[in-house]
Amino acid sequence: MGQAYIIDAVRTPVGRRGGSLARVHSADLGGHALRALMRRTGIDPGAVDDVIFGCTDTLGSQAGDIARTSWLVAGLPEHVPGVTVDRQCGSSQQAVHFAAQGVLSGTADLVVAGGVQNMSAIPISAAMTVGAQFGFSTPFAQSPGWRERYGDQEVSQFRAAEMIAEKWGASREQMEQFAFASHQRALTAIDEGRFAREIEPVGDFAVDEGPRRETSLVKMAGLRTLTEGGRLTAAVASQISDAASALLVASEAAVRTHGLTPRARVHHLSAYADDPVWMLTAPIPATRRALERAGMSIDDIDLFEVNEAFASVVLAWLRETGADHDRTNVNGGAIALGHPIGATGTRLMATLLHELERTGGRYGLQVMCEGGGQANVTIIERL
Prior knowledge:
The chain is of the alpha/beta class and 383 residues long. It has a domain at 4-125 and 240-258: Peroxisomal Thiolase, Chain A, domain 1, CATH 3.40.47. The chain is built from 13 helices and 10 strands. Strands 1, 2, 3, 4, 5, 6, 7, 8, 9 and 10 form a 10-stranded mixed sheet that branches. Helix 3 (91-105) packs across helix 13, helix 6 (157-167) crosses helix 11 (311-321) and helix 10 (283-294) runs parallel beside helix 11. The chain is globular. The chain starts with a strand and ends with a strand. It comes from Parafrankia irregularis.
């Protein structure tokens, strides 16, 4: 079997809700990342076989196959197709998987994987709320088949995060300490210029807006919980954000033909699922299964990127896998940097790739919890 190489990875800065990217059309946001990727790699855009983008809530500016639209808006060749995928929070990580699988199967040589989300323009769960006109707050849960299997219980990420905090004994104070560390790590990364190589500025906007210098444990402790009697507050949840990201995956043949220099290779890719009501626990069994299938142990991994949907999710993952927090989300995570859902997968991978290069690490593992109780796992090897 051949190899699937990562040639380059780029992202926009992450804008906070209502911030610097709020008024940028989703297609233009995606197109910005695509133009930057083509320029940085020096590849002939006409040689690209496909463009695979992650995006959720594909309504309004994100409707009509945003992968294809972003490519066209970028002024790139019309003969190159595009397709949009939705695996909820892991949509663009799944785009990387599809891109790598196309290359590994021999049916493609150059594939762009990425994602885009403007959550300021299209609110989170907008596709779900379309069902409100029919009286469905969570449309899929109104399916007779679903109700027969799972009953009438509430299905929400907030309930799941609370359940995880309770089961794994994550106190409010522990989650706030984790969240505070996320902000501090992100601010350190910004101040040291660690993100500079991976970010393509949008006009004068060049620095992630999410991390809060003014935050403190005292301020976090004063916030109201999301639910009465609960442990979670907005401080320990990922931020609503806007961004786009993209990377180029190439085959061995493409590397030779186009004179490319790979920066990493995809060592392992898989997806796994768990209870959809608990929703956010799948990264735990998915990580164990991925390491087993790759013939590796947790100690073989130099860096981890575990999406910070909620602090309780990552704290439970750390406890169950035995991974070292000092090697996990070393430049902060979604609690500080934001979670532009469709773009997060390749945003994390861009950061993981650049951090492996900065620190000299060899293997990086990325995993994300996803709606429906799913998780993607990707292990990359720096070259």
